[in-house]
Amino acid sequence: MQIKLYNLRKNQKHLTQKELAAMLGISTKSYRDKELGHQQFTQDEMFKISDIFNAKLEDIFLPRKYQTGTKNK
């Protein structure tokens, strides 16, 4: 889960998943899956999110829990 993103969305901007999904031009389900970590945000979506929250990409999306190739299967 993108805990930092969740906190920004709920506590800073008081946005619903539906509202933020609309800002990104994606479905609410797609946004929910991305916030939960089931799908990855595209680079364009990450840049747009950083603009919406006036925050650096790395402050929202890093560090990731798993880096490519480090998650045990």
From TrEMBL:
Organism whose genome encodes this protein: Lactobacillus paragasseri
Keywords (A to Z) from UniProt: DNA-binding
InterPro entries linked to this entry: Cro/C1-type_HTH, Lambda_DNA-bd_dom_sf
Domain HTH cro/C1-type, chain residue ranges per copy: 5-60
GO function terms (MF aspect): DNA binding
Protein name, as recorded: Helix-turn-helix transcriptional regulator
Signal peptide limits: none
